[in-house]
């Protein structure tokens, strides 16, 4: 967990949007351990127990009044709330836009009118990746992927929100001073008790839907462990105050993929499944196995350098094993089918660039 030292930044009270989510909750835990007063703000109740030294407030970031009232005395907002990252949620355009863009606009307005001087935004590498080949990219060599070419609405709205946060940097605050902002652009997140990627993979494996493979074995992408991402957020807040791969198929007692399918065919199938989901949604729930953007993330190289985060934040990621997350899942999975999970070893069939990567801009 974060090694930043309490007292080195002039912050006593923070608010975390998306505080009931995987990242937001664990970020809150880390900040509490560092001695800060923490407000976890989310429209959903958390799956985990709220720490005794934290306050959970159920509210919607699209509701200015709700967020404004929750932000009294706050010195820094960590804006981690978002919607539509994967699966069928990627197809819910109205919800994605209202939360990712509308919610971000409200967060910025609250910072200005509450005179909250620091805002850290959890963005995504999707803002620069849309199926384009990127090898060892960095903040200087990669630019925003064109909005009109983005394959999914989540990436498009995250790009707009990313731009909004950076444009708000040095905005005058109502009570004097200026708002300092930065964005962190993490790739996929893994870690203990992760409830999105691994459960989805296992559910599809149980249905025998992962009997095929379609990636190029030379394809690389970055992943980041939860604890490293939490550390980066803490360091980003500290920096603002001071001054300014891999994807893995888990062999959880299921057979390995044995059919190889061209990526172009999988992409076309994803397009059809997305279309069917939208057409049939009023009548039946048909969740796509993969979306087009997920296919591109698996099939196309996109790796990044972290020199800027190392230099400006002091970011020094620790090494973790994806196998640890698998073991945690196996031991804690509340399902009758857990009896099938006899082999906690895993077969890695993608590659990842050594080191935890984080795109950082401010």
UniProtKB/TrEMBL annotation:
Gene3D superfamilies: NAD(P)-binding Rossmann-like Domain (3.40.50.720). GO terms for biological process: steroid biosynthetic process. GO terms for molecular function: oxidoreductase activity, acting on the CH-OH group of donors, NAD or NADP as acceptor. Keywords: Oxidoreductase. Pfam families: 3Beta_HSD (PF01073). InterPro entries: 3Beta_OHSteriod_DH/Estase (IPR002225), Lipid_A_modif_metabolic_enz (IPR050177), NAD(P)-bd_dom_sf (IPR036291). Belongs to the 3-beta-HSD family. PANTHER family: BIFUNCTIONAL POLYMYXIN RESISTANCE PROTEIN ARNA, SHORT CHAIN DEHYDROGENASE_REDUCTASE FAMILY 42E, MEMBER 2. This is 3-beta hydroxysteroid dehydrogenase/isomerase domain-containing protein.
């Amino acid at each position: 967990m974060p090694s930043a030292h309490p007292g080195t930044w002039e912050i006593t009270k923070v608010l975390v949007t998306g505080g009931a989510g995987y990242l937001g909750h664990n970020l809150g835990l880390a900040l509490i351990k560092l001695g800060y007063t923490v407000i976890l703000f989310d429209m959903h109740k958390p799956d985990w127990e709220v720490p005794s030294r934290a306050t959970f407030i159920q509210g919607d970031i699209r509701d200015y009044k709700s967020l404004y009232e929750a932000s009294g005395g706050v010195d820094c907002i960590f804006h981690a709330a978002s919607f539509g990252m994967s699966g069928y949620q990627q197809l819910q355009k109205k919800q994605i836009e209202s939360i990712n863009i509308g919610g971000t606009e409200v967060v910025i307005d609250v910072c200005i009118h509450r005179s909250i001087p620091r805002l850290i935004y959890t963005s995504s590498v999707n803002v620069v990746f849309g199926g384009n080949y990127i090898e060892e990219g960095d903040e200087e060599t990669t630019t925003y992927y064109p909005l009109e070419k983005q394959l999914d609405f989540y990436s498009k709205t995250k790009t707009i929100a990313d731009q909004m946060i950076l444009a708000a940097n040095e905005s005058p605050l109502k009570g004097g001073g200026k708002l300092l902002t930065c964005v962190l652009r993490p790739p996929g997140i893994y870690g203990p008790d992760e409830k999105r990627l691994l459960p989805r993979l296992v559910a599809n494996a149980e249905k025998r839907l992962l009997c095929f493979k379609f990636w190029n074995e030379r394809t690389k992408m970055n992943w980041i462990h939860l604890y490293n991402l939490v550390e980066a957020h803490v360091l980003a807040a500290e920096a603002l105050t001071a001054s300014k791969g891999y994807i893995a198929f888990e062999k959880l007692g299921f057979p390995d993929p044995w059919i190889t399918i061209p990526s172009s065919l999988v992409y076309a199938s994803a397009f059809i499944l997305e279309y069917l989901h939208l057409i049939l949604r009023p009548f039946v729930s048909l969740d796509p196995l993969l979306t087009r953007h997920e296919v591109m993330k698996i099939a196309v190289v996109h790796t990044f350098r972290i020199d800027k985060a190392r230099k400006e934040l002091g970011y020094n990621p620790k090494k973790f094993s994806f196998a640890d997350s698998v073991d945690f899942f196996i031991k804690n999975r509340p399902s009758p089918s857990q009896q099938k999970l006899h082999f906690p070893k895993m077969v890695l069939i993608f590659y990842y660039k050594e080191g935890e990567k984080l795109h950082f801009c401010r």
